[in-house]
Amino acid sequence: MSSRITAFPLRPSRVHEACGPLAAGLAAASAANAGAALWLREGWKPEMINPLGLNNYLDPARVLSVRTRDQIETLAAAEEALRAGVVPLVVMELTQPIGLTAGRRLQLAARAGQSTGLCLIPEGMGSHAAETRWRCTPIPDPENAPEDSTLQSWELIKNKSGTSGLWHVRWSPSTRHLIVVSPARK
What we know:
This protein is of the alpha/beta class. 22% of the residues lie in helices and 29% in strands. It has helices at residues 23-34, 71-84, 100-113, and strands spanning 15-19, 37-42, 63-68, 89-93, 116-120, 132-138, 152-159, 165-172, 177-180. Helix 2 (71-84) packs parallel to helix 3.
């Protein structure tokens, strides 16, 4: 296990994917790295990201949370935001697979606007157009639980520009940085 994540921060001007129960953690760390984010989610889903919950990552005022009518509207808004380039990170919570055409449109928009996109997807779903795909899961730490439940496993399961890998990470709220933790020092 490397002490440095070679594919994070996410490659700019590209669209990436994350799945797993802690995919929003990768999105939050990406937003902290980018400095601001647009977070899109379908309005029919009862839960919504609370920007105040991102306070350990970045100033909540730097996150614009938007509810869309459906996935088609989510993709359209994401494409427009990526192409405009006015926000460095666009996070899309998707509930259905997207085809190669939609994925390619997002990639072209990200490149044109020099913004980064991140699709939060259900496990086993993904677009062939994605630059990278991450699986983010918690690592139970029985010695420190429940006092410290921040240890995570970030597995890079698809990477068009390099190799895959697995890292144990922890977010440091005090420094607002991602720390790679060696298995021996969990």
